[in-house]
Amino acid sequence: xxxxxxxxxxxxxxxxxxxxxxxxxxxxxxxxxxxxxxxxxxxxxxxxxx
Length: 50
Fold this sequence. Notes:
By secondary structure, the chain is an all-alpha fold. It has helices at about 1-10, 20-30, 35-40. Helix 1 (about 1-10) runs parallel beside helix 3 (about 35-40). The longest helix has 10 residues, at about 20-30. The relative contact order is 0.23.
């Protein structure tokens, strides 16, 4: 789930070069369940977690 979220989040943010920014953003949110974090990072229409 985390890998898919990373792929989706970085798709329009520079791809692999944005992995560091994804990591920082991901960790800054604490530890919510991945589906909730997906909605926080990608918006309500982010689609399914997998």
